């Protein structure tokens, strides 16, 4: 080993532009290395030891990257916190992750300070990027400490919190491997190598979603360790993405299908304005992508679109452009180091083509939900685990997703998968976004409800609802049609594209016992 890993690359070429902030500020690798080194020395001065944790409430950009680069060479766990959370939710994660230091950005100071109060962390362990009244600036913490490489370096890890769709979020904690940080970073590069991504400073990786998501940190961090320049977006915007790709000759990124839908909605003259010839590996995940949407992206961007299915807990599948085109709609085949198992309610394997709960395992990947042995065990089947998704394998081992178990609708005893209906509706030109779920029905147990965010400039009306339903003729069995359509100004999505379906569903179920 020995040619990859940010710390090695930065020492060899301190002038390499390793990161570009959303405001266009460029950061040399040598400067980021010096900042990360100083931070390690300063926090060790406060008594932090390998195995301890730090957490950060910081927007996308170099400041958060410095926290990551410090923790990953000092043997600490780094927990980036979702900046959409409220004070008590932030405080819960700071306390639960046992953070020995908490970093907050001025932009998120209000909820961040409520989180500090809630978590009980001592005030001398809280530091601010930018001016926050009563909080010590990070620059003051690191002042006077050397920028030399720390002694006794050992690989740390990120500890992300799952989005908590069931109860409180849980930290996914992996044992530390005790390796040299650069060697550990080089091992991580297998993830991007699976997609065919190559190292080299001619590459740039565009960060399109918030860095507190596991995949965003993994793909961005790994691209950096391969010598790619990280280009950060602050807020997702379709034309801004094209502008950044053209300006920085972006070769790879990590996206979600909602991004594709919004890109395709751009006027043709805008699409033609930007040179996208540098794109090589545009990877997407996190939600099913409607087949027509993906065909349209292939037509526009060419064969640079890769898809995968995975979970924070480890294991997954990969669909290459070639594999997907032969099996449209698939999320791919198992990674070389991963295995898939599809089982029925009795946890018995199901035949090819039959939907069941998807279990996965990854060679050498062990994890536990921090402080929740029971939850860890409950989602396991021997050494496989599940996140509760339903899907099936075709004869060639390609996985197709149906839906999350929690979202499945049981109407008149028939299992109905909302994702299938959403995919059909999503291609309607007057629909910007759509969610389908079950609502109470005396006779059938549940009936199908569609909530639609109309495309810009389209007015909601009973006529529009009728037109939308009518578009399903001949494409979807009548029993899968929504019984009614409601309209919404904006769909409640997390910035990573994950739909907060329970926010939509819960009001319809008030006063009812769940039928399922």
Automatic annotation (TrEMBL):
<dbReference type="GO" id="GO:0004467">
    <property type="term" value="F:long-chain fatty acid-CoA ligase activity"/>
</dbReference>
<dbReference type="InterPro" id="IPR020845">
    <property type="entry name" value="AMP-binding_CS"/>
</dbReference>
<dbReference type="GO" id="GO:0031956">
    <property type="term" value="F:medium-chain fatty acid-CoA ligase activity"/>
</dbReference>
<dbReference type="InterPro" id="IPR045851">
    <property type="entry name" value="AMP-bd_C_sf"/>
</dbReference>
<protein>
    <submittedName>
        <fullName>Long-chain acyl-CoA synthetase</fullName>
        <ecNumber>6.2.1.3</ecNumber>
    </submittedName>
</protein>
<feature type="domain" description="AMP-dependent synthetase/ligase">
    <location>
        <begin position="7"/>
        <end position="364"/>
    </location>
</feature>
<feature type="domain" description="AMP-binding enzyme C-terminal">
    <location>
        <begin position="420"/>
        <end position="498"/>
    </location>
</feature>
<dbReference type="InterPro" id="IPR000873">
    <property type="entry name" value="AMP-dep_synth/lig_dom"/>
</dbReference>
<dbReference type="Pfam" id="PF13193">
    <property type="entry name" value="AMP-binding_C"/>
</dbReference>
<feature type="region of interest" description="Disordered">
    <location>
        <begin position="152"/>
        <end position="175"/>
    </location>
</feature>
<dbReference type="InterPro" id="IPR025110">
    <property type="entry name" value="AMP-bd_C"/>
</dbReference>
<keyword id="KW-0436">Ligase</keyword>
<comment type="similarity">
    <text>Belongs to the ATP-dependent AMP-binding enzyme family.</text>
</comment>
<dbReference type="InterPro" id="IPR042099">
    <property type="entry name" value="ANL_N_sf"/>
</dbReference>
<dbReference type="Pfam" id="PF00501">
    <property type="entry name" value="AMP-binding"/>
</dbReference>
């Amino acid at each position: 080993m020995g040619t990859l890993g940010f710390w090695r690359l930065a020492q060899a070429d301190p002038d390499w532009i390793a990161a570009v902030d959303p405001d266009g500020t460029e950061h040399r690798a040598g400067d980021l290395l010096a900042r990360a080194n100083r931070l390690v020395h300063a926090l060790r001065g406060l008594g932090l030891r390998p195995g301890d944790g730090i957490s950060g409430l910081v927007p996308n950009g170099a400041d958060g990257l410095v926290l990551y680069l410090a923790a990953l060479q000092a043997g600490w766990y780094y927990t980036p916190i979702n900046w959409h959370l409220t004070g008590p939710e932030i405080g819960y994660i700071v306390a639960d992750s046992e953070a020995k230091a908490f970093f907050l950005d001025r932009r998120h100071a209000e909820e961040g300070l409520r989180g500090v109060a809630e978590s009980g962390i001592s005030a001398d362990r809280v530091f601010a990027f930018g001016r926050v009244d009563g909080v010590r600036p990070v620059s003051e913490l690191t002042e006077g400490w050397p920028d030399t490489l720390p002694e006794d370096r050992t690989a740390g890890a990120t500890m992300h919190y799952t989005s908590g769709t069931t109860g409180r979020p849980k930290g996914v904690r992996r044992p530390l491997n005790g390796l040299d940080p650069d060697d550990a970073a080089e091992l991580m590069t297998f993830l991007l190598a699976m997609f065919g991504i190559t190292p080299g400073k001619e590459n740039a990786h565009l960060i399109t979603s918030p860095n507190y998501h596991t995949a965003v940190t993994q793909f961005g961090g790994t691209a950096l360790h391969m010598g790619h320049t990280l280009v950060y977006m602050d807020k997702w915007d379709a034309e801004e993405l094209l502008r950044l790709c053209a300006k920085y000759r972006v070769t790879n990124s990590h996206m979600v299908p909602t991004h594709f839908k919004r890109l395709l909605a751009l006027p043709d003259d805008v699409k033609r304005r930007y040179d996208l010839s540098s794109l090589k590996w545009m990877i997407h995940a996190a939600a099913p992508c409607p087949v027509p949407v993906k065909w349209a992206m292939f037509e526009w961007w060419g064969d640079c679109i890769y898809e995968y299915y995975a979970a924070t807990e480890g294991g997954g599948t990969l669909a290459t452009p070639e594999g997907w085109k032969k099996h449209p709609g698939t999320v791919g085949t198992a990674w070389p180091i991963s295995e898939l198992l599809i089982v029925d309610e009795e946890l018995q394997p199901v035949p090819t083509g039959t939907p069941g709960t998807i279990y996965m395992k990854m060679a050498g990947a062990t994890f536990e939900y921090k402080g929740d042995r029971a939850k860890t065990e409950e989602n396991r089947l021997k050494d496989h685990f599940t996140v509760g998704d339903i899907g099936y394998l075709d004869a060639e081992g390609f996985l197709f997703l149906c839906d999350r178990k929690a979202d499945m609708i049981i109407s008149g005893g028939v299992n109905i998968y909302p994702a299938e209906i959403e995919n059909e509706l999503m291609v309607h030109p007057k629909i910007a976004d759509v969610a389908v779920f079950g609502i109470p029905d005396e006779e059938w147990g549940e009936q199908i409800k569609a909530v639609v965010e109309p495309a810009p400039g389209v007015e909601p009306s009973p006529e529009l609802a009728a037109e939308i339903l009518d578009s399903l003729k001949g494409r979807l069995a009548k029993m899968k049609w929504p019984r009614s359509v409601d309209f919404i100004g904006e769909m409640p999505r997390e910035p990573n594209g994950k739909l907060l379906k329970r926010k939509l569903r819960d009001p319809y179920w008030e006063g009812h016992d769940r039928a399922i």
